[in-house]
Design a protein that fits this description.
heterodimer, A: mainly beta, 4-stranded antiparallel β-sheet, B: mainly beta, 0% helix
Chain lengths: 113, 116
């Protein structure tokens, strides 16, 4: 299995400040023939299903605010919230879809400081 | 707008079989997508259970493979999950989702509790 490890487990950020979440995969999720990273980021608020924010490591889903951005390649990835808003309080997960079983990181809880 | 809706018993007895259905609207289950089940134990992270294609082809999480069956019903535009020999460890919110590689559409989830 491809193990996904996120850091930190939680972080508290002041409104308007930057939040950075890291995700590391135990093996590369970069498919060389098409140069695509099979990595997605999700946001989950209490009582709701996960919502996909970013796919292919850096492609923002339609309707997702541009303060959310994804970067990285191979085994190391980052989700950045450039200016934290109150509505961004949630748990964030990375997920690889390079192979099966599909695997998720353990989640990072983002709170307001 | 794709919508997925899980349905099934919210309480299952230990050693019994958990059975859930996911009704799909706004999209055809006869498409190039796979259709998946994901679960989340209370206060925990997300665990992929498995997926099915319109042809009936399946992929399962090895950790659950011996107990899981996922099937598709093209006539009803839905797919189903069966998990046998359940224990308290299978208590979770079960989500169905559409697979486009990533999970782009999710149901609201249904809580299944395993208890006598």
């Amino acid at each position: 299995d491809t193990v996904m490890t996120q850091s930190p487990d939680s972080l508290a950020v002041s409104l308007g400040e930057r939040a950075t979440i890291n995700c590391k995969s135990s093996q590369s999720v970069l498919y060389t023939p098409n140069n695509k990273n099979y990595l997605a980021w999700y946001q989950q608020k209490p009582g709701q299903p996960p919502k996909m924010l970013i796919n292919w490591a850096s492609t923002r889903e339609s309707g997702v605010p541009d303060r959310f951005s994804g970067s990285g390649s191979g085994t190391d990835f980052t989700l950045t919230i450039s200016s934290l808003q109150a509505e961004d309080v949630a748990v964030y997960y990375c997920q690889q879809y390079y192979n099966t079983p599909r695997t998720f990181g353990q989640g990072t809880k983002v709170e307001i400081k | 707008q794709v919508q997925l809706q899980e349905s099934g018993p919210g309480l299952v007895k230990p050693s019994g079989t958990l059975s859930l259905t996911c009704a799909v609207s706004g999209a055809s289950i006869i498409s190039s997508n796979w259709w998946s089940w994901v679960r989340q134990s209370p206060g925990k992270g997300l665990e992929w259970i498995g997926e099915v294609y319109q042809s009936g082809s399946t992929n399962y999480n090895p950790s659950l493979k011996s107990r899981v069956t996922i099937s598709v019903d093209k006539s009803k535009n839905q797919f189903s999950l069966k998990l046998s020999s359940v224990t308290a460890a299978d208590t979770a919110v079960y989500y169905c989702a559409r697979v486009s590689g990533y999970f782009d559409w999710w149901g609201q989830g249904t809580l299944v509790t395993v208890s006598s």
